[in-house]
Specification:
Radius of gyration: 22 Å
Number of strands: 8
Distance between the termini: 71 Å
Number of helices: 7
Strand order of the largest sheet: 5-8-3-2-1-4-7-6
Number of domains: 1
Strand content: 15-25%
Shape: globular
Structural class: alpha+beta
Length: about 260
């Protein structure tokens, strides 16, 4: 009886710890569940950009980022093909405003298709960099087709690449993709980029025109900070240091 009584407090202690652990896990899951899809997409977009830029030999050149007019990130764009191909993804975009700051993010969708006998599927993290004023105006229109309204090309890679001398820099939109499926690459020509009106309402509480958001007329919400911080970090490095390769230990806050 003594052994049973002495063991009982320990059992209760273990049981109590287990209940607390399960409860905390439940709270964490509830917190994540309560977050909107657009909030999660903003975090995912920041993560995609950070991971791509963390691989120097395959990253977007600093010169491309420092000269960018707009940047759009679509995490996990899905392309499924069974006889005929199709693709769809949701992400966020931001543009430089007149004072050089980055605008609040605007939710976007990209849809497209490709003809041909294909079989398989892939998930692609996509980054689109608008390189000039014409491309920026196409994006501000809230709907444009890549390859038709705006010229698009696969962008040069490598953090230190001399992108300004690359023929691909003539394109209005440079595309970067990171495939995790069985396809080797992705063709964006014919894809249509539009404003995601539903997600815009969720993010800002009401519908706001694309041009107002990307033109800097709308303040960014707190949930946007991880994404905007990543954009500021990588778009400001080359400009601040005057070189393609950033110097170590220099703050990027001045790029706002």
């Amino acid at each position: 009886m003594t052994r049973i009584n002495s063991a009982l407090p320990r059992c209760l202690l273990v049981l109590g710890a287990g209940v607390l652990l399960l409860t905390s896990m439940g709270w964490s899951a509830d917190d994540d569940k309560d977050r909107s899809d657009i909030d999660k997409r903003l975090d995912a977009s920041a993560k995609v950009l950070n991971e791509i830029m963390a691989t120097p030999d395959k990253a977007i050149p600093d010169k491309v980022m420092s000269d960018a007019k707009c940047v759009a990130v679509i995490p996990s764009m899905v392309k499924i093909a069974v006889g005929f191909g199709g693709s769809h993804g949701k992400g966020v975009a931001t543009c430089r405003t007149e004072d050089g700051r980055w605008s609040a993010p605007a939710p976007i969708t990209i849809t497209g298709g490709s003809w041909g006998l294909q079989l398989g599927g892939q998930a692609v993290d996509l980054v689109m960099v608008v390189t000039n004023e014409d491309g920026m105006q196409h994006l501000l229109s809230s709907k444009f087709k890549l390859g038709a309204d705006a010229s698009a090309a696969a962008g040069p890679v490598g953090r230190d690449a001399a992108a300004d001398t690359d023929v691909k820099m003539r394109a209005e939109v440079l595309t970067y993709s990171r495939a995790r499926g069985i396809f080797a690459g992705i063709d964006l020509n014919g894809s249509v980029v539009t404003q995601d009106k539903d997600e815009t309402r969720i993010l800002y509480g009401t519908f706001v025109p694309f041009s107002d958001i990307l033109g800097g007329k709308v303040p960014a919400r707190g949930a946007s900070e991880p994404f905007l911080a990543a954009i500021r970090k990588y778009s400001g490095q080359a400009k601040e240091h005057g070189e393609l390769k950033p110097a170590a230990g220099v703050s990027n806050t001045a790029s706002r």
